[in-house]
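Section 5.1 Outputs to date
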Amino acid sequence: MDRFFGISDAGSSIALEVRAGFTTFLTMAYILFVNPSILGNAIVIEGANVFGQLLTATALAAAVGTLMMGLVARYPFALAPGMGLNAYFAYTVVLQQQIPWQTALGAVFLSGLAFLVLSVV
């Protein structure tokens, strides 16, 4: 593990990295509950447990992003959904401007594709 991640080359140890990872998890765990609460105000699906679905999507997005950052890029950065964009999406775009949440999510998807293309190029 040390050879793959270069932990001692960075002046760290496995024990220190485990403590840092645990601390990072604790500081970011609030996102698992705040993000679905924010988005749940804008996304309404009749007869569905939207909070549970958004909680699962938030957890999966954070897990996949963080694992890819660690295993592919080999950087010790945790990734999670951006709370500022989510609040803007829910409160300004959907609730204030009355744009349907499906349309707003489509715009978020397209902007994500644009940023992906810009990052690759």
